[in-house]
Amino acid sequence: MNNEFKEDRRVNWVAFLPPVIILMLFVLSGIFWTDAVGALMTSLLYGMADYFGAYMNLLSMAFVFLAVVFIISRYGDVTIGGSDAKPEYTMTTWCAMSICSGIGTGLLFWAMGEPIYHFMTTPTAIAEAGSREAAIFAVAQAMWDWSFVQYSMYAICGAAFALICYNKKKSLSISTIVDGATGHHRPWLNTLITGMVIFCLMGATSNSMGVGLMQIGAGLEAAFGVAQSPVVWLFAAIFITFIFILSCVSGIGKGLKLISSTCMYFFFFLLIYVFIFGDKQFITKITSESIGFMVDNWGTQTTLMNVLAADDTWFADWIVQYWASFIVYAPVIGMFLARMGRGRTIRTFMLVQILVPSFFCILWIGVFGGQTIYLQTSGVLDVWNAVNTSGMQSTVFQILGTLPFSGIITILFLCTVTLSFCTLADPMASVAATLSVQSLSAEAEAPKKQKIVVGCLLGATAYTLVATGGINSVKGMFTLVGLLQSIVLIMCAVVLFKYGARCSKEPNSGCIEASSITDESV
Fold it and tell me: Is the pLDDT of residue 374 over 60?
């Protein structure tokens, strides 16, 4: 046994290169055979949803229950890093980074987009599309999709990484989770799963960044009349990639801290503005009823399938894809969030990581989603027609255009999208770089060169997907990689149970000065 943890900052090319090459080949196939690959991915999506959708839904629900168990049980008393550990971030900064790193540009886009889709294409088991019941369901479902389920997954994964890294002084890597869950060190299995996670992470992040680029292009057109084109997307991709790489190499305590804090000011300004100048009466009413619907029906909202409604594919298009995408992100966002948990108890860590972003997302969707439904039902703007003719990325700015001082608000919204883009890309590039290095402690940063390489790969892939239309071919990949990634998700829960029980019985929350594992098992 070796009692000293040693860091090896060399790139693990065996785990890093194969998934990057496979991802590039997949992207290229989507470029040259867009329709064929798109059709294949669509068939894969519906096939996977039919056969494995119930598993994804029930697993997602299980993690909500598991989160409650970890919060109310003795596991919650364990202090990350031991009783002498001090938090590195204030509660305000911690909350800002937790909110921004998890939502990226998705909430800005889908807070208005998802409710209108649910309202006009309501699942047959719920209500008639366009009805009052459909409107309440639409906002409530969007609230649930962006709140407790995903953040329970993120929190459990984050707590598992934090405990095993800070208290047991093991490396911040997928291999540590695999070893901890299985109780055995198998290098081939560690390399295989690490490569799979890198592939899932980079594919999912590139897809999300691609959607962000499309939204930025639509914002530039709405604010300055610059028509959307591959050239515009290219310059936007170069600029934003430069910004988030600069933030990434600055480290979590500098770059992301500054961007997240700034982004939160924009978030709250936009939230207050839309509430004040939107239809406050309608927003407050539908928000209240939607929260009530969510409290009464959250189980159904998590597990809704198409039983006895074979022609209804809503469940595959929405909740199965959502849960799959959150499962893809959960372990890697957990790796990032773990680095902010030092000095907090498991209970505090999980309460903050789950409740703060969930409440924020519910409030945000209530305001922006409620205003969107109001515009559709009042006749002020035919939002659904705009979606079908201009695309959701342009419709978002048409919705904002109905408010006073729309030109200024459009620019502010565009700035918020850009900052949110960076708060997603920064931690994902950092985690991808960390995964590609042999082993790092929780306190250490991945080499700057590797962060730059990963950042450039993500930016280039995102641009390629948008400029060629290949982004539609990647959508179906979420369910497949989510199914694979669920293995790692379950391992994180096992590790938290295993080491949480051990640390709760040991002095100083089981925090040791050095790892007792061999260098080979790190």
Answer: yes
